[in-house]
Amino acid sequence: MARTKTAKSRLPAAKRLLARRPISAIVRSRPLHEEVVDRLRDLIIEGEIVPGERLHEINLSETLNVSRTPLREALKLLANEGLVDLLPGRGARVSVLSADGAQDLFEVVSGLERLAAELAAVRMTSRDLTRLKAMHDKMAEHFAAGEKREYFALNHAIHVAIVAAAKNDTLTATHATLMSKARRGSYAALASEARWKESMTEHEELMEALEQREAKLAGEILFTHDRHTGETIGVLLAKADHHHAQL
């Protein structure tokens, strides 16, 4: 079995992706490298391209129906986000997030988002709150239906909306630089059904605190929520590392 897994992991990323699910070619409606960045980012975050996997430019350019120039630009941007490692003279590969690295990351994210929730509870407009409530209700529907990908997309949008509602440009910019890495970890945490349920409960409590404009409570709930996510990811990554060491 170990030999089969090893052989599979050596297949080019593009060919293994085609075996998993159909990938539509990119249709240009904005700068092409931005389309490529979005597509590859989603595939990495959702685990379709696994940590440590090599990204072969020729295969990926054929799969996505783009030239290698926008692909290279996209890989450079993903490297800046910490999702890809550029290997001088050897292409690129998906970066690996360690258990310690995940916990370090979510310690920072939890602090930023606690501040964001405290500020948002005070500064958000009634329109902000109405929009946030609608997003939350839709996310709850996806949770009830077991629609993980749709749930995750709205979950991320809600976190971003809370930060935006804090009305602090420095906070927004700092938060944005961390979110690509954090999104990958957050999606991985949903592999734990217990954590997914706990996360939904925490979001219900957070929404109630924001509606009541209870700044300190909202901040503490979001801080704890992010810390729980970081702890879950750390445990999952530690287990994966132990499993690979046994092979």
Question: What CATH architecture of the largest domain do you see?
Answer: Up-down Bundle
For the secondary structure, the number of strands is: 3
The H-and-E topology, N to C, reads as HHHEHHEEHHHHHH
C-alpha end-to-end distance: 10 Å
Radius of gyration: 19 Å
Provide a concise account of the structure shown.
By secondary structure, the chain is mainly alpha-helical.
Molecular structure report:
The protein has 247 residues and is mainly α. The chain has two domains: 2-94, Arc Repressor Mutant, subunit A (Orthogonal Bundle); 99-246, GntR ligand-binding domain-like (Four Helix Bundle (Hemerythrin (Met), subunit A), Up-down Bundle), CATH 1.20.120. It has helices spanning 2-9, 13-20, 32-45, 57-64, 68-80, 99-123, 126-145, 148-165, 169-189, 193-211, 215-246; strands at residues 54-55, 84-87, 91-94. Strands 1-3-2 form a three-stranded antiparallel sheet. A hairpin with a 3-residue loop joins strand 2 (84-87) and strand 3. The model is unreliable at 1-8 and 242-247 (pLDDT under 50).
